Request: fold
Amino acid sequence: MSRIRVAVDVGGTFTDICIMDEDSGAIRIEKTASTPDDPMQAIMNGVEQGRIDLSEVTLFSHGTTVATNALITRRLPRTAMVCTEGFRDVVEIRRANKEDLWDTYKDVAKPYIPRRDRLTVRERISAEGTILEALDEEAAHRVAEILVKRQVKSIAVCFMNSYVNGANERRMREILKEAMPDLPVSISSEVMPEIFEHERFSTTMANAVCAPVVVDYVSRLGEKLAAAGYKRDLLLLHSGGGVMTPASVRDFSARLAGSGIAAGAIASRFIGNLCGFPNSIGFDMGGTSTDVSLAWNGESRITKDWYIEFGYPIRFPSIEVLTIGAGGGSLAWQDEGGSLRNGPQSAGAFPGPACYKNGNRTATNTDANVVLGRLGTSLAGGKITLDPALAAQAVQETVATPFSMELHQAAEAIIAVANANMGNAVRLLSISRGYDPRDFALVAFGGAGALHGAAVAKELSIPTVIVPPNPGVTSALGCLLVDVQHDFSESFMADASTVSPAEMQAAFVLMEEQAVERLTHEGVAREDMALQRTVEMMYQGQWRSLAVSAPARVESICSLIEAFHNEHEREFNYRREEAPVSIFRIAVKAIGIVPKAEMPRHEVLPHVPEPLGRRGVWFDGVSHDAAVYERDQLRAGAAFAGPAIVEQFDSTTVVPPGMSATVDGFLNILIVTKG
Reply:
């Protein structure tokens, strides 16, 4: 009996399914139309379309947009918040900042929980953790009665200074559970135990509003899979780059926000490492947007400064991904100053680019690529046919005529603006963070990533572009490459010079006990557990911290301080050896290692492949006679030079003039951008 692993990535237009044979490592892919009203219907359609026998599936991993979409659309169940008296408006006051500081007419969106559902009780904890005033239990019971009458579906409990002592929050939860035993109750001292009250309240609020939506979705999907023969836990990808089982979803639902985006970053890092590039930049370009991620020394860059909607941070550790509105369907347009722009407006899946023949007459990046000959006349194995005449008409009317350009010159201008936008996104995530793009490889994937990857890399002097074997479903592959993962943290505010190693070691041990308990609850065997420690530090007077790795046994605080100086210099290009250093927080990443099937490796036999045909492709204002290859026919060891086009079911790869390409043992195309 064969054993297979299945990964599903739900996108706005397509649901991608990656099916891997455990024994051979062979991968096959399926794409099916997404069903936004009920995402699991597309999943089950894909299972049927892919002829997957769920009784033979040993792992089913899923990157979901359910939590993200719920927050974006605000189709949220009625949720309440219980706060310390006097602090019900923390999430409304926020940081008093705006996404566009100078737009006086654009207000920040209202909190996910309206003011009428934010109730208060008397309690008080000191900054040192002393209970100055115990929870007013009479008031707490009144609040519970009110919320029963309001028929709320979830509750967030957020008390001041609970990060250092959560006793009052835990008692409030007990009282609420007595009145509403089946309701999810999120308490900030467990969801996000850190000092900054807005970030802590906001994360707990997001967790509470997502809980009913996510729990319902996960339960129903799990039941459908089980009914069809699947016998294991459904694994759900979270934003931190790991997976969680349904057992943890109820308590940490907001971790699934940003789930789908993280999958691409994970796959990009894996492919970079596989090809011998521990430093890699993920370039995931789809139909509407481009996601850029970065891996340094084989590890993804992690951030806590992220949100789905501005003003409401979600402080769970997340893989840092920068998303911009640039994709195959991005529209070309002229701004008020007469300059050519590209995106973020998009033609979407419907009507789509002009060449899709659905009535759109505005030029898109796809139309420009068709005019330039970089795209052929069909996509998705012939399921979508493209009309070059409509593409040319759109480029002519949108750009060529208004800017007095020749048709191909106009098409190249559209692509140049799109590439510049995407290049700027890569700069923001690399150069502005202290990384030199020349030290990285660019992993180009998504439906359109391989079309633009080489040009973007050339603009940034990135020497190598890696195009995976199945670029269009690489994000789904990422769901197969992750472990069960949870993050634990607690405040540990102290002058580093006064902290004893024994004191810090004891705090880490307590957290690790919680981590082992959580992983055990999820069915992870002790021998499959790995625990990673970090310490967040800052120069005294700063309020933003940097994380450095801590050893399995803390024996010297001085070595941690030196590591912090080094990290600060790399990030900000300076260090202050003479300045006192403060410790802000300690954290433990708990990993439950999931066995992974290895990618098949093919024997590399150097050869020059024979193209299936040739066609005219425009580069730099000149039409070139470019070789056209079929991706399935390119064996390991194939070597060819640009200009060349490589076509396949889910993507098209462009190798510009002056560049060369080879196929490695894992069937990745490696493009060298310098001749």
User: Anything to note?
Assistant: The chain has a mean pLDDT of 91. Residues 197-227 form the longest helix (31 residues).
